[in-house]
Amino acid sequence: MSEHEAPAVMEVQGLHRASSKAVVEATLSRRPGVLQGEADPVSQTANVTFDPDRTSTADLIGWVRGCGYHCAGQAETYPLR
């Protein structure tokens, strides 16, 4: 990962169908600074790689909310032991 890439695991509530996954992924992929986004209905999250010089987690939250899903921000992640 380069210095112009940052990962985020965003909490996305309401992903219940494959079409929901597609909506979130398409919305994020069209936004400036988003390099990759993959929604996961099982964990109710979206794994996003973005350029922090071009966008922010606040923008990511707004875009997820804008397509109709609840997003409280970054999901808690725990290291594997």
TrEMBL record:
Gene3D superfamilies linked: 3.30.70.100
Domain HMA: 6-72
Classification via Pfam families: HMA (PF00403)
MF (Gene Ontology): metal ion binding
PROSITE patterns: HMA_2
Protein name per Swiss-Prot or TrEMBL: HMA domain-containing protein
